[in-house]
Amino acid sequence: MRISEFRPIALMLAILVGVFVQTGKADAETAIFAGGCFWCVESDFESVKGVRSVVSGYTGGTTANPTYKQVGKGGTGHYEAVKIDYNPSVVGYDQLLHMFLRSVDPTDAGGQFCDRGESYRTAIFVANEAERAVAEAAIVKAHADLGRKIVTPVLLASNFTNAEGYHQDYYKGTKLVVTRRGPKKQSEAYKFYRDACGRDARVAELWGKAAPFVGH
């Protein structure tokens, strides 16, 4: 093939690659939220149309590759958090923020519901100034709607470490675990924990019909 014949093909391939890259970027964005127990936040957001996946993990701290035991003990600075991969053509970042703030108690600086301590605090982790602006606007709106001070901070995203495998999709797991009510499947243990912790009751008390996940 002569060079003159090859150039149009190369140009076409370059255009196709560019389109593919841009489409990939448009169809895959990430949000990182800390909202107390990551089992619950994962369960909530996996039900949202346009969300492709939710991964439980740890972020915001200084210890490299932290474990659940280290984070729970305290002192690492990490939050239990989730990384949400979503399609922005289906659900926007502002919509995810709106749902997140109304699925937690953003007035509580000491933890969430029955879970207390630094790892259970709420936070929004942003990748850039554009996301920060959207997050801060969402907090202003939540404050106006609730009429109470919102203490959930907006923080610059740092390393996100995936939690151990047994934490992923815990809410629908079938493995038997020991609870105060005897052996139960993970999904049953999760429901018992969520109810006993008072998560949905407190969210409903705060947000009423605006709570997006209560009773889902």
Molecular structure report:
With 216 residues, this protein is an alpha+beta fold. It has a domain of 143 residues: Peptide methionine sulphoxide reductase MsrA (Peptide Methionine Sulfoxide Reductase, Chain A, 2-Layer Sandwich), CATH 3.30.1060. The strands form 3 sheets. Strands 7-6-1-3-2-8 form a 6-stranded mixed beta sheet. A two-stranded antiparallel ribbon has the order 4-5.
Q: Briefly, what is this?
A:
With 216 residues, this protein is of the alpha+beta class. It has helices at residues 3-27, 38-45, 68-73, 93-101, 129-146, 186-197, 199-207, and strands spanning 29-35, 51-59, 79-86, 111-112, 115-116, 122-126, 154-156, 160-162, 176-179, 182-185. The model is unreliable at 8-25 (pLDDT under 50).
Shape: globular
- Specify the helix fraction band: 40-55%
Integer average pLDDT: 90
CATH architecture descriptor name of the domain at 27-169: 2-Layer Sandwich
Q: How much strand?
A: 15-25%
Number of helices: 7
